[in-house]
Amino acid sequence: MTPxxxxxxxxxxxxxxxxxxxxxxxxxxxxxxxxxxxxxxxxRxxxxxxxxxxxxxxxxxxxxxREEFSARGYEKTSVRGIAKAAGVDSxxxxxxxxxxxxxxxxxxxxxxxxxxxxPDAVAEGPADEVGERLTRFVxxxxxxxxxxxxxxxxxxxAVDNDTAAAVLRRLVAAQLMRRIAARLELxxxxxxxxxxxxxxxxxxxxxxxxxxxxLASADLEQIIARVAPVVQTHLTAP
Length: 238
Description:
It is built from eleven helices and no strands. By secondary structure, the protein is mainly α. Helix 5 crosses helix 9. It is elongated, with a radius of gyration of 34 Å. About 30% of the residues are buried.
């Protein structure tokens, strides 16, 4: 015969209530779990981009290259570092530009673009004012912060490395000096153009790169007034 069950006690009721509460707690909605991990940076793209993105990608690589060359100099800048700064794969940098030397050449051509209009300053206006026009034009480019920053990057890289200096020399000779010489129509025109350029580049280096005082803080018009006659002599004197 089965013995009768003992009567329920207060402790049993309490346990049942606790069990019910546990069930209720389990059934209650829980707040969603939050992901506290730091967001991952976007992955660099590999391979060639769609054609619609090609121009933007190329410009982004050039901008990154100018920043890298400016911050690190030619020697310490790498294609991999440029790619990382641009958010692309290294193979894409090689696809658009080739070697590091070719990337540098493309970057400085963009940086020098405003200066490449200097031959027009030589050709426009009276010949006896060419020295002032060219001086004002070249120093005006250096005076503008927007155009000065890329030029500083180029000059600093060229000073530190022979390869970078050779790239800059080819660009200046082909795109600037020979075009200025062609506008002079005088004997020894190429030598004249290079002497004028030496005067202007030397002035720009001391004022904007080395920042030698009192030249660095002198009034621009005062500098033009003193330098322009020397440039005029180089370009037009017998």
